[in-house]
Design brief:
single chain; 274 residues; 2 domains; globular; 9 helices
């Protein structure tokens, strides 16, 4: 049960939310083909693009078990796969992050034994609050080219960076204005305004957001507890290793094995007491 004080804080935070806030954006786009289709049509410059499926907070794992969680993952009518990521901080929008997302999407959509020629086109789209590339453009299309000829190497893999600070009367300029607008009545695109209004003003939508914020709060608490436990275990391991080093009876390799520390960590501790 959410306390009255916390409920008030949640309601105030909901009023301030914008589509540029990834948790709010994923809520608004969840199961909303209409909103997703509109945004993709504008960003990809294709008014005929149709979306069949939308998944938010979609997890994909690689063969080693490492996973990535995609803010929005959409499947187009022509089979194309499209990933939209909101990044307010520049460090989260690194070029290799885009490459990694793209590679995992490829790996996840090709069944075992399927010919790679059947890979559909993929799009990884980062919407960043500031112009991370810094050239003043609305959209940056990243594709591959043959260095010697300058010709496009069309492997169907596309990366886009959308400048969230861009403003003009073009569709993308208006869209980025809407992404930074907290008031649905002031938004340009009625499809987006309707969805934002649902989560900000209608009781059912507001309750969904409050529950989501409570879950995030609880997850953060649990992560803090786990981090504290891990720090305690690490500190205990270091203390044990220091005691064994002080005895000068065991090899560094044996101390590493008994303490659970890496050999390099034991060597660093040895330097401290030398």
């Amino acid at each position: 049960m959410v306390s009255e004080e916390r409920q008030k804080k949640y309601l105030q935070r909901i009023k301030e939310f914008r589509l540029m806030d990834d948790d709010f954006m994923t809520a608004c786009f969840s199961e909303s083909i209409e909103c997703t289709e509109l945004v993709l049509q504008i960003m990809l410059g294709d008014q005929n693009l149709k979306v069949l499926e939308v998944h938010t907070q979609h997890s994909i794992k690689n063969l080693q078990g490492r996973s990535v969680r995609l803010d929005v993952y959409a499947v187009g009518a022509d089979g194309q796969r499209m990933n939209i990521e909101i990044q307010r901080q520049e460090k989260g929008a690194g070029f290799k992050r885009a490459r990694y997302n793209s590679s995992l999407i490829d790996a996840a959509i090709l069944p075992s034994g399927e010919d790679t020629d059947n890979l559909p086109d993929t799009y990884v789209i980062f919407i960043t609050e500031s112009d991370v590339i810094g050239k003043g453009l609305a959209v940056y299309h990243i594709d591959k080219y043959i260095t010697e000829t300058g010709e496009l190497f069309d492997d169907g893999s596309h990366i886009l960076y959308v400048n969230g600070a861009y403003r003009d009367d073009s569709p993308i300029g208006k869209l980025m204005y809407d992404f930074s607008c907290a008031e649905p009545d002031q938004m340009v695109y009625k499809e987006l305004a309707k969805r934002v209004r649902y989560f900000k003003e209608e009781p059912e939508g507001v309750n969904i957001m409050c529950r989501a914020m409570e879950e995030l709060c609880n997850e953060a608490k649990m992560e803090g507890v786990q981090e504290g436990i891990q720090k305690g275990i690490q500190q205990g391991s270091r203390k044990a290793a220091l005691n064994m080093l002080a005895s000068k009876k065991l090899s560094l390799e044996t101390i590493a094995m008994y303490s659970g520390l890496k050999l390099e960590e034991v060597k660093e501790l040895e330097k401290q007491i030398s």
